[in-house]
Write a structure and sequence with these properties.
This protein is α/β, with parallel strands linked by helices. The protein is built from 17 helices and 13 strands. It has a domain of 213 residues: Rossmann fold (3-Layer(aba) Sandwich), CATH 3.40.50. The longest helix is centred in the middle third of the chain and has 16 residues.
Length: 429
Amino acid sequence: MVIKLKCVDCGREFEPFVVRYMCDCGGTLDVVHDLNVLRKIDLKRLFDERWGTRQKPYNSGVWRYKELIFPVEEQYIVSKPEGNTNLYEAGKAGEYAGLKNFLLKHEGENPTCSFKDRGMTCGITAAHRMGAKIVACASTGNTSASMAAYAACAGMIGIVFIPEGKIAYGKLTQALAYGGKTLQIKGDFDDAMTLVQEVCDKLNIYLLNSINPYRIEGQKAIGFEILQQLNWEVPDWFILPGGNLGNNTALSKGLMELYELGIITRKPRIAVIQATGANPLYKMWKNKTPYQRVPNAETIATAIKIGNPVSWKKSLRGIEWSNGVVEEVTDQEIMDAKAWVDASGIGAEPASCATVAGAKKLVEKGIMHPEEKVVGILTGHLLKDPDATVNYHKSALQERGIASHFANAPVQIESTLEAVKKQISSLIS
């Protein structure tokens, strides 16, 4: 194998197929590729040759980049396949954000409707390679849906730990439907994360949260695919939401590797957007203070309702490498931006729309310029959290302090032609 595991903190190295998620010193682990070996391969040409193939596993938008993702034997690969998601012109959402050249990469078009599938194909493949029979994760929704689906494909038992309180039914439905054994615990996501790590350690169960280094490798493919869709031209900015921070960790790690290999020759800037009620990285960044968790994290954007993200150190590494920034947005800003993403015919769950809300704020602050080429990542599908969408348009989020500035409420009318004509006239007048 041309990979190894390496501690981010102390630099200690480990063999790749020993079940391990953290170093003995407590540091998180990277999968490290032998770039000297990879320099001998024309990777860009290889990746382009695989574009559009029907051949498994290279029809996947992750395994197309296998050499720089996870060079495992093909018989272990578990793929649905994932990736190959569209890159849209932002339309009305771009106008709202104040950007003239804004593209949105819609990861909600993955098999279980979120970006988690890119990481999960690698995580489940690693589990398969190591002979695991039972896998587990803590989740506010998207991870559980993805893990349950991929575990089912691999013939494994999947156990999901979810926090008490509000869980978006669009996500919980998937975990249940795919056969995941769902355990709801008293506490928030961070409590569930602490418990699942203990359970996996003591009961010999394979852990599939983003602390798993192979999950991060799969998520790198988002950046690879965007660049390939842009004919390997690097945008000025990537912007994406930040919850557990595995996604921007993966994005930046992949970009660093491409830069080291000479496949790209300049660094894009990375902007990570957190929700105001779940913003430990933003507080650290803004105040230049040591990292501190945010207890009892709260936001309508459930996918990023995380107060103690496990990947914060690796996330910070990538932001600093790219001369990037961290910003926060309120739930009001998220839901207003979501109204414009949805009205553009694209649609996404609330957490995704932190991307557009953050872009708008960065433009207003003069950090991101209207003429720059910006790629925003939408992490999950509109139907992951339909209640939030319907309640916004019905002006039913006042209890959360959210006003429906761009509501498109249903209108009740009489069942007559005249009533219909009146409504249509009002639309075109």
